[in-house]
Design brief:
Largest sheet: 9 strands, mixed
Shape: globular
CATH topology of the domain at 2-79 and 162-233: Rossmann fold
Number of helices: 10
CATH architecture of the domain at 2-79 and 162-233: 3-Layer(aba) Sandwich
Radius of gyration: 19 Å
Order of helices and strands: EHEHEHHHHHEHEHEEEHE
Structural class: alpha/beta
Helix content: 25-40%
CATH class of the domain at 2-79 and 162-233: Alpha Beta
Strand content: 15-25%
Length: about 290
Amino acid sequence: MEQLALDIPNCRKANPPRGQLLKWIGNKQRFAAEIASYFPRSYGTYFEPFLGTGAVLAAVAPPKAVASDIFPPLIEIWNALKKSPEVLKEWYAERWRRFVGGDKATEYENIKSGYNRSPNGADLLFISRSCYGGVVRFRKADGHISTPVGAHDPIRPESFARRVDEWSKRVTGTDFFALDFREATARAKRGDLVYCDPPYHHSQGILYGAQSFKVGDLFDAIAHCQARGVFVALSIDGIKKSGTLNCDVNIPAGLFRREAFVDCGRSMLRRFQMGGRTLESEVVHDRLLLTY
């Protein structure tokens, strides 16, 4: 497999938004432009079947895209962004007012309990911006969010509203669906681009959908895309612990033509798991695999 340098001639330009819409572990906001620089210069429809926070989608702002995830409350947020941005702003503002108007820990637990009783995008939105470290942790037994409140103050509704205005302009050409990645990738046609950022099996087992995700199933879906002439880029476990731990993944021979490593800085998930300590040894380099 050919290993790529960081500077690629004729790369596709991307312009990330000024701020994150959602706080979420594994967010590619700071690295979205670098990841997109490896995309083909031209392609048809852009597909992102593990949408998460949509950082790469927003940076690319494709004129035609299909973005999806298996997590319905998350897709509820994205559809509100596109179709009813004022509703999205009010979801956040109403919960923010409750949060700052009372005991913060108590109000956070009330919002979290509301989500756990009936999973929904409105509660999830605020939890993502107010929970500890942006690590929205889901219990395997019942799917309930278990993350405690963060020590930080979530951004004010005025700041969040400005982010909604910016992000909503970037997704005007995107259709959002609650789909399994196999169904989503099956929709891609020759000349389309699929960017995959799945749960990382080495470190992200506490995240939604990660317990049932099998990377071998994703490799099968990518092989079907490759056979149809679809471009595929995959972010996956690379190197952690400042280069001392190589997160080996059993990649089928011949599936990818090129690879690169993206410096993702220190692991926020490990900081959460180890009590918030600064972790100089927990530097992460994601592996970016390309079928083209």
